[in-house]
Each structure stands twice: as structure tokens, then as C-alpha cells.
Fold this protein.
Amino acid sequence: MKKNFFFASALVVLGLTACENGFDEYEENLSPVQTEQVAKANSLLQLRTRAAGDEDATISYPVQVYVFKGNKCESVQTIGDKGQTLNVALVEGTYSIYAIGGASATDYTLPTKDEGTSSSAITLKDGRSLTDLMAAQATATLVDGGTNTVTLGLQRKTMLIQDVTIKKIPTAATAVSVTIAPLWQALTVSGAFANAGQSQTIALTKQADGRTWTLGGDAIHVLPPSSQPASISVNITSGGTTKTYTYSTSDQLEAAYKINIDGTYTEAVGVNLTGTITGATWLGERTISFEFDENGSNGVNGDDPSEPTQPNSPSSDIPSVGSTYQGCYVLAVTTIDANSAELTLLSPNESTVTSASNANAALATLGVDGISDWSIPTKDQIDAFYAAKDDITPAPERQRYLWQDGTTMKQRYMSDGSDSNANFNYAIFLRPVATVSITKD
């Protein structure tokens, strides 16, 4: 009777048509693996996907879904197309759910259930091109005999180089390309960026007029820069010699933006380029302009050089509070001088912890490559975290987050901002912080 009651309750909660079609048809919709799990488990997790942001936004399929209980991966499944819903039978408890859209087994090496962790990298296979990767994460608490329906809002993690055109190139040129660096190379299961310091070189194709070089094929997906400012270089090969003109961007290049690069070469001064970054509807739009010549580069629409720099104000290249730096949310900025500052960063990674010692051990797996000395947030840092909770990506959707008051572990309730001593009998999540010093030329 308990088994029949469980499925009847699940069908009522989900608004399925079991009353018309009967239990047998619902059971037939489960895969053989899910049917075996249902026989052992006492709760049901139902997973759906949607595109975060504009209602016209699309989702990249397939979507790889990883379900963790603590640090153990309990299930790896795939949502193959629009409208498909996953039904995962589990025992009661609190689960972390991660989804990566656009990552097929054909193009990527995917972590397995037995070996995967939230920090495992999803890497491209040799000879394959990056796809339109998206990511989402959520948490769900299942009770005995209950059902929890989770809708995963996927957010785009790539930039799209949709057009590159360089005009008036000398006819003697034998090759022209554009390089963007430094870039992230991979995503982890949790949706964090991984493998910093890579570059993407885009070979251009000569057009019929002999002097215009353009992106010859489809638009190209790339992950965003692993550190800012990023650089855009134009490489022109002629007579066996390659000249490179490089611009250091004053505006941050970020995920979910489309990039168009349009340039004109002149014999006297080198290359004059303008670039437009067009955002998906939920991120807005901005334009960057820059020039290349034989002596270097400078921004066209940047700060007025006649305006003096304030002695205690960092340059515009210093990330601001609320921006991102190497995939991390900037919680605070402490100015050192006009060109340097200390940033307090919040990791995009988080996990449930079961004790103070477990929390300290988890720091090693929750950081971001290239940044060290991750720690449990202090009172000031958890206050900044709570104040920015509606703006942070990935969003903090958990009920309680760990922080440290001297030697005492405490928990912050994200619903109302109240605190209490940490009670590890209930799910407490840790999202670590780090402080880095940066200097801009």
C-alpha cells in the first residue's frame, strides 16, 4: 500500500494525467534504470529545464544532469530535447543538482557517476569545437514518500564570435587571423570555469576583392576570459613574416554576449579596428572601440587622457563590486593606489558541509583555478554575500550558509538574514571567499 500511495501522491502533486491513463502508463514512461531505482527508493525527484532570462531564449541540448548527495554522485542522466522531464527515484535527503546544457558525449569527455565530483572538468575531445554551453544548479530536500519538482534555469556560459571582418589588407598578405586571450578552456560539473590562460585563434578567409578577410564559416563559441582585461590581436602574414597588433580591452568580455569585430588596415598607421559586443536580451548591449597602429594601441572611447587620475581611485580596469573576476563574484574592493586594489571574491562553487572539520577540508575543492587561500566567510563577508544574494550568479538558492565568527561556526539564513550557531544536523552550505591583490598597468 505504501508504494501505491507514494505514486498516487506524486501524480497528484505533478498534475499528471494518471487519473485518466492509470499507473501502468506512468510506470512505462520510466527507463529500466529508473524502474529499478523506484523499487529501492522512497522519494521522487522530477527535473525540468528552462532558459534563464528572456522568454525567447533557447536551451542547448542535450542537458547532462548530475545529482549529488553530499560529495557522492547518486545519478547522471540526460535530458535529450525540449519538453522532456527526468524522474529520478531517490531515498529521502538533501541533494545538489547540477546541469550542463550543450555538452554531448560526442563532443566532450563527461565525468561518470562513479568518478564525478562537482569540480570535475567537462573537457572537449580532440578535434571537436566548443558548443553553446549552459549551466544551472539547484538544491532539493526529499522526504519519505514525497515528490520534489525542480526547474533548472540554464544560463549561457559562452561568448559567440559571430562576425570578424578586416578590410583593405595588402594583396601580398597570405594569412590573416584574430586571437583572443586569455580564456577559460572548460566548465566543471557545477558550472564553474576551469583551465585558465588559454587562447582562441580564428583564421580568416580572403574574399573575392583580394583585400577583405572575414570569418569564413559558422559563428564560434568561446568561453570568457580567465582574467581581465582580455586582449584581441590581429595577425597579418606577408612574405613569411607575421605582424601582430594587440589591443587590451577596457571593457570586460563576458559570457552570454555576441561579439562582432570590424577592422580596416591602413598602410600608414597599421590597423584601425572597431568592435561591437551585442548582448543577449537579458544582458543588454555595449560597444567597445579601439585602434591599432605600428606603435601600439589605445582605446577610442576610453577615458579622456586630459583628465587627471584621482590619487586614491583605481583605474577603470580594476573590477568593481558586483562584477566578476576569473569567474568569481566581487564582494568588496579595497583601493591600494591608482592602479592596484584588493578584491574580496566569492567562489561560484558550493557544497553542503557536515562539520567544522568537513568545511575546512571542503575548501580545497570549492575554489577556482588560479586563486589560492580560500576560506570560510567572516561576518563582514557573509553580510556582503547576503546583501548581494539577488545579483550573484550562480544564485544562492540554499536556506543556510556557513560563516565563521572567530572560532565559532555560525549559519546565515538567506530568507531573512538572521544568524545562529551552526547546526550540522541540517543542511548547511559553504561558498568560500578569497582575497587577491591585482595591479593594472
